[in-house]
Structures are given as structure tokens and as C-alpha cells.
Amino acid sequence: MKRTALHLATVALLLPLAACGTSAQAGTGSTITVTVGYQSKTINTVTAGTLLRSLGYFEQQLGALHDGHTYKVVWQDYATGAPITAQMTAGKIDIGSMGDFPLLINAARGKQLGRPTHLVSVTGYNLRGGLNTIVTAPDSKLSTLEDLKGRKVSTSVGSAADGTLVRALQRVGIDPDKGIEKLNQQPAVGASALDAGSADALSQFVAWPGLLAYQGKAKALYDGAQLDLPTFHGVTAREDFAKQRPAVLEAFLKAQAQATDYLNAHPVAAAEKVAKATGLPAEVVYLYNGAHGISTFDPAVKPQLVSALKQDVSILKSEKLTGDIDVDSFVDDQYAKKALGSAYTKELAATPPPATSEVWPKGAETTRPFKSPDELLKYVAQHRSAIRAAYVPDTTTGTLWFADRAVWVVDGSRLLPFVAPATAQAYVAAHPGARTISYADALGRAS
């Protein structure tokens, strides 16, 4: 299956190169078409895709150029980054957004086919790696990574979620090529396989783990933030497009910054907009994109992210998906610096705030933060029928998770949440007297 998928991907990438998405030689007064590839359900790209499209900021920025041209934006939605790369290297997409591992493949394919691309900005990121999660079925007896030995694990080869799986297995001494049976599947297919029992676990990127947990179709086995290695999504642009239409690319980046500001200022409204456009539950969108969500949004290409990108190359090489990649030449934030001015320098130095416990009351347009999970539980216990969603940060990694899907530990008078059972057990082992309890018990103790 893996060889077949790779063969098909290669065939797609080697299709005859077509005309550019933009009209490079267009004269004054002509109509310029700009084609943007995005992934509506990969919700950490929303500031360069779903949310940006719904707000209309890019079209507004293009209209403000007043350069004698009329601009038409074509938005093309894909399930993963691979087809976006195929279309970019065929000259049919000008700007695309995707995760860190697909970005590297984008860089490699662009160079290989003589259509170089560049990482020009970042959308959403998590500095510890919390955007990827390994989940199992709700009734699964699996509780640690070691339990995956000899099991069938679904992931998307070449994705950041696959990278998390490979690294996590290596850390516990399991050969990711021989120690498990890896199923190379699209996220939706893998989710179905997990539900049907034909896969024992699923390693996927946002928003699939949170969605399946919310639906009661999965439980977390491994929190990607345990790797303590940044994961992110970003914007890539064709080099020829950027050189021919720098003002257009800068207009896109200004619009992305506007969308980012909107998301940060109106996180609940943004979650509702994305939910409406994608069909995802707004509660799941907010888990990742909320005020204290798993993802942080700003366009700056931070040094930590570039460093992590360089470390990702070895994983792709081990999967025989790429050779060496010159990450430094792939990264090009000059257009973002020009578009955002002094704000870019400010974002570059900014650090994400710590995650906070939050409740989303039914019918409310804002969420309610709490100083601790204990306080959140007390509130939820007193307002059970009025709660739309409740979120708590993992005690050790800070990854936000649904309170009713978390693993709870009681330690004296403290009630502590964890995303995965292994991290909860590690805490219990290190703290005599601590023990895991059910969510119902945690609510009862809090009230």
C-alpha cells in the first residue's frame, strides 16, 4: 500500500507543468488570478485558509493595491498537503498552507522539479509538539506506547503525525519499521479503521484526535507534547510567483496577519466561523484554536520552528520520502517582514502564554477562564446542564484537552488532569499517595 501511494504521488508530481496560477505577463488593466491551496479541516492553517477566506481580507487587500489590475482569488480545498505540493510544482497553485513535514516535502519536490518554493510565514504552532496525538479505541486495553509493539497503527506517511509516531516509538525502543504494522492511510480512512477495529491505534494531526475524542470514538494514548519538539503549520509560495508578484504575496501576508488578529481577539466567533465552514464541531475547533488552545497563532517564522524543521529532515529521509533538504534556503520571511513591518519583530520575540482551564457555557459568546482545574471542576459540578465544553491543560505538558476525556489524578487535595494514561501513571509513580480517579469522582470531590 505504501509503495502504491508513493508511486501515485510521484506520478502526480511529474505531470507536465502547466501555466502559472497568476498571469505573469499580464499588462495594465488585466485580470490576475491568484490561486490559494488550503486544507479546511487542518484547522491550524485557518489564518491562511478557512478563516481568512470567510473574512474576505485577502480580497480586500488586493483591492487596495490600486495597481491597475483586477484580481480574482481562487480557493482550492484539499485534505492534505501532498496535492497542494503537486499543484504548486505544476504551476497551478501560487500560495499553499500545510504542516511542517509536508512543507519539507514541498521544498524537496519544488527543487527537484525546478519549481522552487519557500516558507514565507507560519500559521499555528505548538512549541512542545502538542498538535499531534496517538489515540486508541475507547475500550482499548492499550495504555502505553510499549503496548503498540506488533500492533496495527494507522497514520499518514510523510505527515507530522507520522513523525510523532516514529519519534515516540524510537524513544521507547520500538523500531517504527519493524516493531509495528504501519498502515499508511488518509486521516478519515484511519479514523474508520480505528472504529472498525482494523487498526489498533491512530497517529494523526489536528483536528482528528480531538474530534474522535469529542465524539467518544477514541481516547488518547500519547500526547505529542511529550516529545518537547515544536510542530507547526505554515505558508509556502512559489519562488517565481513571489518574484513576479511580490505585492500580491505581501497582500496575502497582511491579510493573514489580519485574520490572526481576528482569531486572537475573537476566539469563540472564529471557532464558530471555522466550524460552519468545515462541519467540525465548534468545541473541537476551540480546543486547538481557542484563547488558550493547543495552537498559538502568529505569522513569524521563529528560530525554534526552523530548528525543529531541520530535525524533521532525518525522519523523512528514513521513510525514503526525501533526500537532504537545505532548510535555510527554503525559509524566506522577507515578504512577511515587509508586509508586517515592526509588528513582525514583535511577533518573532513573543512567547505563548501558559494554557488555562476554560469553560464554554451554553449560549455564551465568550468562555470563562479558571485559575486551576480544581476551580473549573467545582464550577462544572454546579452548572452541569449549562456547560457546552470544558477544557483543562495537561499537568506536565500543558496540552489542552476536554475535561471529561482527560485522565484525572487526585493528589491530596489537588485534582490534576492528564491527556494520556502513561503521563498520569508517571505522575502517580513519582508522588506517593496519588492515584487515578474517574471524571465523575473528580467532579464529586470538587463539589
TrEMBL record:
Residues 89-270 form the SsuA/THI5-like domain. Residues 1-26 form the signal peptide. Keywords: Signal. InterPro entries: SsuA/THI5. It comes from the Bacteria. PANTHER family: ABC TRANSPORTER SUBSTRATE-BINDING PROTEIN, ALIPHATIC SULFONATES-BINDING PROTEIN-RELATED. This is ABC transporter substrate-binding protein. It comes from Streptomyces cynarae.
